[in-house]
Amino acid sequence: MRKEKSPTFLNPANLLTVNQEIELTITSLSHGGSGVGRFDDFVVFVPFTAPHDVARVQILNLKKNYAEGKLLEIISSSNLRAIPQCSVFGQCGGCQWQNIKYSEQLHQKQLIVEHALSRIAKEDRLEILPIISALNPYHYRNRAQVRAEGSKVGFYQRGSHHLVEFEKCWIVDDKINVEIEKIKLERKNLDEFKTSKIEIFLTEKGEVHRSLNRSHGDKTGFSQVNTSQNLKMQEYICSLLPTPRKVDADNVGSNGNLLDLYCGNGNFSLPLSNQGWRIYGVDNNRNAINAAREKRNDQTFYSVNDCHSELQKLVLRKRKFEAILIDPPRIGVYEAIWPDLAKLGAEQIIYVSCNPATFARDWSRLRNKSSYKLLSVQPFDMFPQTFHVELVAQMSAN
Ligand SMILES: C[S@@+](CC[C@H](N)C(=O)[O-])C[C@H]1O[C@@H](n2cnc3c(N)ncnc32)[C@H](O)[C@@H]1O
Fold first, then answer.
1. What distance in angstroms lies between residue 329's CA and the mean position of ligand 1's atoms?
2. Whole-structure pTM over 0.70, yes or no?
3. Residue-number span of the structural domain to which 157 is assigned
4. Among 147-156, 159-168, 264-273, which range has the highest average pLDDT?
5. Nearest ligand 1 atom to alpha carbon 330
6. What percent of the chain has pLDDT over 70?
7. Over 187-249, what HEC string results?
8. Considering its fold, how many domains does the chain have in total?
9. Fewest CB atoms within 10 Å of the CB: 63, 118, 354, 376?
């Protein structure tokens, strides 16, 4: 019988082959969660490793500029490791970093932001402010989506339809865990093949609600999952945009105009309007705007529209804004937005981002098309135990 040969995709330096086992020292963590080591300068990503681990790794995938490996054995364990609290850590995929001490998670997130800005936007001299940590690195999420198959309740493993059952989830609010226990009891003897998607969430008053077979945020659009960190972020943004005093041609003071692009349910619009801004919020999700309108005051105005289409309309109408807040999804902003945005005359732009790489790309595009300067970048840890990092950047027209 012909012996199956293992595929040998050689990387440029012919250093590695698929299935090869190597010894690797992990030096950092990547945006994506994996540990990063270098094998003779060639980058190798290995999930569930920690900086300073020395590990035996099997190469699974070889790409032009990097390889992906599987952790086989820890040869020497890093002192930055923590014992994961969750019994299904590594299987469920919701958390990537429960095996890393919280102080180190913060350090690595800071490095991820610095790295994105220097590598993608070539911003080497800007000092990134120290990341704002979470008071509770566990039990912070105000919503969770579980799957139920007959009497089994759990999370889908990342990127698959494999149901992972768990005793309790360490990153959701404990009220949500109590509700999950109730669901498990209700379904104890249920014999049903259909999979149900159950979203469990806390209302602003802290009550627990459920919705069945709806997509995340169907009813109200996007909402921030970490309530206490969101409050800190709201306060921080309000401090960057102090009470405006716009002086009209006839020298009468009036409120400044602030354009809140990707405003969602008015999460930032409302506190900013309370400190004197006149807000024009835009989001393409009607449910989000309906939720924003429910809490509106006489300083908030909203439009359901695509941000770029709305910007083009505002430019045609020669509207001016003293400040612009942008909080796009992970993919960032369309390139075509920047020339129009620069025409609105804003003295300040605040960009909230949940993806340092797309932020760095977007900032370099804006910098190339305008005279805006990047004044500060403040990372926030909204998602402890995961690799995700949020940031608030402040740009000024002069
Ligand atoms: C990261 S969320 C931010 C929401 C809000 N600022 C908050 O803090 O809750 C991004 C928002 O962008 C909206 N969105 C995505 N693509 C859009 C587009 N092309 N035009 C307008 N809104 C869009 C989504 O509906 C979502 O509400």
1. 6
2. yes
3. 143-212
4. 264-273
5. 1
6. 92
7. CCCCCCCCEEEEEEEECCCCCEEEEECCCCCCCCCCCCCEHHHHHHHHHHHHHHCCCCCEECC
8. 3
9. 63
